[in-house]
Amino acid sequence: MLTATYSLVAMSVEHASVRASLNAFHTLIRSTFAPEPSLSSGQVDFACLAMQRLYDAFDHRKVELVLIPAVRKLTHVADRLLAELDQLRRTAAQAMNWLFARARDGAIEGKSAVASFCDTADKFCSSLLTRLEREERELFPVARTALPVETWFDIAHQLIAAESRSVKPRATLRTRPRGSITPVPPPMRVDNNLVRGMAS
């Protein structure tokens, strides 16, 4: 089915972009933040803002908006897998919630506190990266065989329409159904010098 192939390739391309962003953030945390004896409020806010944007991008992927709703509606063969994917998302949201709560206290002092912050950021990244991998390795094959041809035509049409509109993620998180946790970010006080340094 060419429409299924097109749709899954489009989703894989999007996955590659999201994966690259998650890996870049994970590397930043481990190479720049983890060795520090303390983190300034600007560094903490920068990390939280980066996670907010990553979570928003994850939330607005084609898989989330188009493929998973179709699988949920038309087949029960992937119910257990979808529940496990939902749990990975909740784990990431819980990690981000903890970091947002910690960010409200401002700077983070001491190696153990920095390590805890970085370990929680690791959990955020690893949960979403694991979900991406399992979607490609497990969900895509199930969807390819379980969804009828007409559904794949509809999915391909939605993907093409979305590309033509160039839809961008919203700045804030939408409320998730099925008991998912919606992180609430702290007021951001981004250190512009830090941002410029990381962008250079």
Structure in words:
With 200 residues, this protein is an all-alpha fold. It is 75% helix and 2% strand. It is elongated, with a radius of gyration of 18 Å. It has helices at residues 2-33, 41-59, 62-74, 79-103, 111-146, 149-165, 192-199; strands spanning 38-39, 108-109. The protein is built from seven helices and two strands. Helix 1 packs across helix 6, helix 3 (62-74) runs antiparallel to helix 6 and helix 4 (79-103) packs antiparallel against helix 5. A two-stranded antiparallel sheet has the order 1-2.
Main attributes of the structure:
200 residues; mainly alpha; two-stranded antiparallel sheet; 7 helices; elongated; disordered C terminus
Reconstruct the topology from this structure.
Elements: H1 2-33, E1 38-39, H2 41-59, H3 62-74, H4 79-103, E2 108-109, H5 111-146, H6 149-165, H7 192-199
Helix pairs in contact: 1-2, 1-5, 1-6, 2-4, 3-6, 4-5
Helix content: over 70%
The mean pLDDT is 83
The count of DSSP E runs of length 2 or more, i.e. the number of strands, is: 2
Strand content: under 5%
Q: What spatial form do the alpha-carbon principal axes imply?
A: elongated
Number of helices: 7
**Strand-and-helix sequence, N→C?**
HEHHHEHHH
Structural class: mainly alpha
Strand order of the largest sheet: 1-2
Main sheet attributes: strand count, strand direction, barrel closure: 2 strands, antiparallel
Low-confidence stretches: 169-200
Q: For this entry, what is the oligomeric state of its chains?
A: single chain
Distance between the termini: 45 Å
Please compute the radius of gyration using only Cα atoms.
Answer: 18 Å
